[in-house]
Specification:
binds farnesyl diphosphate, Farnesyl Diphosphate Synthase, two-stranded antiparallel sheet, binds magnesium ion, single chain
Length: 309
């Protein structure tokens, strides 16, 4: 598979699925297609379809629907998070207002569901409608635990499962379903996607605090200023001395950027977190060893390497 050709085919499928008359919807469609997103969800779906020898055209539709659900959720997410930038560009809320961001997010979601329905594949419809439900539940759960120092690691994992991993799980699971695997076999593929999504979200949470190779295009310390207890903070809480642990809620409450960065550095949280993530990536690579060597397997391994520190 050629990645840039695949990305342009995904973008032209997005162009077909999002049909619009109103000027604002045309603008949003252009915004989504030109967003600079990496299309990691549809690409992962296509790569798994290839590993499993599925050659049908529905892979383009299913992968693109996953991207569309993702794009819709980001329009809503930037309103919830009060984010000014995404991928280095102004958010739809900043450009057109939050009401427009919510309503156009609904529109994108509706386009995705409409196309999904036309596939006439109840198993795939089930998978994605469950994801949409999980996305909303987990955002509400996150909001409920915002600012609350009693949040546990289990609750955090539940939040990231719903907001990110479930969609990654859906793209690998539906690749297996399209390829004619049994629903039980498809669960193993879903598990791969779920773990990949966990790694992806935890890495995203680290990017809020630490700059890696290149700028993420998002506001720095946004999760921190939103008083969210995310991965690095929860690990810090585990590793810190009793005294320092007691300070964390106060530092978060007062948005003391300098102090939180000092503690994260002192306890080597970046290194600890990446060691954990690298172990997960190793597990993902192990899963791929069951497939014979191919271009798609190589690309998947390269994608996983990009998540390494
Ligand atoms: C990003 O997390 C959040 C999501 C991927 C899910 C957002 C879901 C909703 C707002 C519910 C509405 C759902 C639909 C389908 C319309 P993040 O804020 O940690 O990541 P970020 O740093 O990329 O913003
Ligand atoms: Mg966000």
């Amino acid at each position: 598979m050629n990645i840039s050709l695949a990305v342009s085919k995904i973008d032209s499928t997005l162009n077909e699925i999002i049909h619009e008359d109103l000027k604002i919807l045309k603008d949003i469609k252009k915004y989504v297609i030109k967003s600079g997103g990496k299309r990691i969800r549809p690409l992962t779906h296509l790569l798994f379809c290839d590993l499993l020898n599925y050659k049908g055209k529905d892979q383009w539709i299913v992968g693109t629907i996953a991207e569309l659900i993702h794009a819709a959720s980001l329009l809503h997410d930037d309103v919830v998070d009060e984010a000014d930038t995404r991928r280095g560009k102004k958010t739809v809320g900043v450009l057109y207002g939050n009401k427009t961001a919510i309503l156009t997010g609904d529109f994108l979601l509706a386009c995705g569901i409409e196309r999904l329905n036309r596939l006439q594949n109840p198993a795939i419809l089930d998978v994605f409608t469950d994801v949409i439900r999980q996305l909303s539940v987990s955002e509400l759960l996150q909001m409920q635990w915002q600012k609350n120092p009693k949040i546990t690691f289990e609750i955090y994992e539940k939040i990231i499962y719903g907001k990110t991993s479930s969609l990654f799980g859906a793209v690998t699971q539906t690749a297996a379903l399209l390829a004619g695997q049994s629903s039980k076999q498809a669960e193993d593929y879903r598990d791969f996607g779920l773990l990949m999504g966990d790694v992806f979200q935890k890495r995203d949470d680290l990017l809020d605090y630490f700059t890696l190779t290149k700028n993420s295009g998002k506001d720095h310390l946004k999760d921190f200023s939103n008083k969210l207890y995310t991965y690095p903070i929860l690990v810090l809480r585990e590793k810190a001395s009793k005294q320092d642990k007691a300070l964390i809620p106060k530092i978060i409450e007062s948005s003391n950027n300098k102090k939180i960065m000092e503690l994260l550095t002192e306890y080597k949280i970046k290194e600890i977190c990446f060691t954990e993530l690298n172990e997960d990536i190793h597990e993902l690579r192990e899963f791929l060893t069951q497939f014979p060597e191919s271009k798609s397997k190589l690309i998947l391994n390269e994608q996983l390497s990009k998540l390494l520190y």
